[in-house]
From TrEMBL:
It holds the Pfam family Metallophos. Residues 21-223 form the Calcineurin-like phosphoesterase domain. InterPro entries: Calcineurin-like_PHP, LpxH-like, Metallo-depent_PP-like. Keywords: Cell inner membrane, Cell membrane, Hydrolase, Manganese, Membrane, Metal-binding. PANTHER family: UDP-2,3-DIACYLGLUCOSAMINE HYDROLASE, UDP-2,3-DIACYLGLUCOSAMINE HYDROLASE-RELATED. One of its GO terms (molecular function) is hydrolase activity. Its EC number is 3.6.1.54. CDD domains: MPP_YbbF-LpxH. This is UDP-2,3-diacylglucosamine hydrolase.
Amino acid sequence: MSSANYSRTFDPRMPTGKNLYFASDFHLGAKSYASSREREDRIIRWLDLIKNDVAELFLMGDVFDFWFEYKTVVPKGYVRFLGKLAQLTDAGVKLYLFKGNHDMWMFNYFTEELGASIISNELAIVRGGKTFYLHHGDGLGPGDKLYKFLKKFFRSGVCQWLFARLHPNLGVGIANAWSRKSRIAGAKDVKKIQHQQEWLEVYSKEILETKHYDYFIFGHRHLPLDIALPGNSRYVNLGEWVNHNTYAVFDGENLELKWFEKATK
């Protein structure tokens, strides 16, 4: 399943007393070192909270504000977070890491170190008799043609080969300077928008015209949303962990969007 463009897993059974957990957009590394470390500690407290009842953990993109794996080098930091993930996977938790628009350059490091499945685009799963369509959410729906073009370029082998030629000090420095201009780094909060403006809702409805899913779960928008769709389907956006600290949990019957702790602003 590693580095899959499209993946599907079918397992209608859920272990008794175990849950699926979904979270997105930690943006570790953004705004500042102090802010990132505070957020990292908060995420670890959340992982400690769920460690006894999590069967599968879906981290759905932009876990890092920037990530690039050189052949023998990865970005420094995040040792507490990565250590906690290792603790969970060593205990048998299945981990899925989705490529976001900030950390699309994941290759095999997390597969080798954590046994994680790296998901490049969408993942369709069946759990507890419910169907899920999972994606970070970038490049979907109407509009944003420039980003869709840039996404294809950034994910191309040519772009990755060229970036790998840069010394890590230069490459990571350029990426961090770019990240400081991102909306998560600059925004104090994200206002909730009207449903008719939500392009991932539009995208979900388009999918429903040809195939039914009980749940569409995305990140990317930084908006905690739970929107009813036709046919008893739902679109859930996981929000982010700079302002909201939101996640979703599925207990085998129901999916619920939850808040963990209020971030210090």
